[in-house]
User: Fold DUF1272 domain-containing protein from Qipengyuania citrea.
Amino acid sequence: MLDMRPDCERCGTDLPAQDPGAFICSFECTFCADCANELDDLCPNCGGELMDRPTRARKLHEKFPPATKRKAAA
Assistant:
């Protein structure tokens, strides 16, 4: 199951699990659409392709909660 990380690792933009607009690589590094575009859809951590992250319906958040630990660089 995907972690559904809550923020862009590069700029810190909020990326709610139920909303579109997040991009992930196969290691679940997570970026907003603007940063993914600036990175030419390549993960700066592993070099993998950044793809659209699927959304998770809000009704499933209680049973399958999205991650809460933020990953943005300080």
Observations:
- The helical segments are 33-38.
- The domain at 1-55 is CATH 3.30.40 (Herpes Virus-1).
- The chain is about 10% helix and 10% strand.
